[in-house]
């Protein structure tokens, strides 16, 4: 066996060990949660990017449905430019909300229309008000939700699509709670926020529950990882660089050894 064959064998063995390790990890992950249905996301895989239509429709669902209970506090209105809204559209969106500013010359705080640079305005002033409006339950901020839950996108999609009217025999649903197959413990305080035709799409996409869930999940995943596309582009460049680098080193090695023979 010459040196080259040995190195190739060693590299293959290492790759197998690394891949094997990943496999074991995801198998463990699957055990301790309800089985989620894996969706085909536009942003998965190393070449995956966020589908622009889904992002825009997803924002529409967040703003028309989820935003009455959930904040998105890490996002500013101007971030919407990254998903295809024009500056004029963003100005208009921001101006629908009011933020507290000040103090003015008299030392008073005052309300003014939101600007592009303001963060998304939260539906409630604080956690106490949020709980008081939701039977004591707290609608969490959704900015990082897609990262905060295991298999975030599949989980959010499952949560939104798997409310069931029929409760399994022997299960008692507490007052003010709803049966959901995916939520831990299967009882959630949030009433199913989506169904077929909850919102009407301007681009003619069919407004099914599944489409709504997919769109808003894609939007929330972008909100949690807006840098993902850039990260992947860089990753591909690094891999290309390494391939070229390796080829050059191999050529160099050949040249040097040829002289020594
Ligand atoms: C009427 C208020 C209301 C609306 C509208 C609403 N939610 Fe909720 N949501 C809640 C409450 C309350 C909770 C907390 C549930 C609990 O603690 O049982 C919650 C929890 C959640 C969670 C967290 C689940 C977890 O694992 O902790 C997610 C994700 C979520 N909502 C997504 C959404 C999305 C997406 C929309 C819009 C399509 C939406 N919600 C609309 C009230 C709402």
How are the secondary structure elements laid out?
Elements: H1 3-31, H2 52-64, H3 87-95, E1 98-101, E2 110-113, H4 127-133, H5 145-148, H6 152-161, E3 178-179, E4 187-188, H7 209-224, H8 228-260
Helix pairs in contact: 2-7, 6-7
Bound molecules: heme C.
The site of heme C has 22 residues, from α6.
The CATH architecture of the domain at 45-71 and 142-226 can be given as: Orthogonal Bundle
- Global structural class: mainly alpha
Average pLDDT over all residues: 91
Q: Major sheet: size, sense and barrel closure?
A: 2 strands, antiparallel
- Roughly how many Å is the radius of gyration? 25 Å
Name the poorly predicted regions.
24-32
The CATH class of the domain at 45-71 and 142-226? Mainly Alpha
The CATH topology label of the domain at 45-71 and 142-226 is Cytochrome Bc1 Complex, Chain D, domain 2
Name of the CATH superfamily of the domain at 45-71 and 142-226: Cytochrome c-like domain
Shape label: extended
Give an account of the 3D structure.
By secondary structure, the protein is mainly α. It has helices at residues 3-31, 52-64, 87-95, 127-133, 145-148, 152-161, 209-224, 228-260, and strands at residues 98-101, 110-113, 178-179, 187-188. The chain is 46% helix and 5% strand. Residues 24-32 have low confidence and may be disordered. The protein has a two-stranded antiparallel sheet with strand order 1-2. Strands 3-4 form a two-stranded antiparallel ribbon. It has 8 helices and 4 strands. Among the domains are: 45-71 and 142-226, Cytochrome c-like domain (Cytochrome Bc1 Complex, Chain D, domain 2); 229-261. Bound molecules: heme C (HEC). Heme C binds at residues 61, 65-66, 68-70, 134, 137-140, 145, 149, 156, 159-160, 188-190, 193-194, 216.
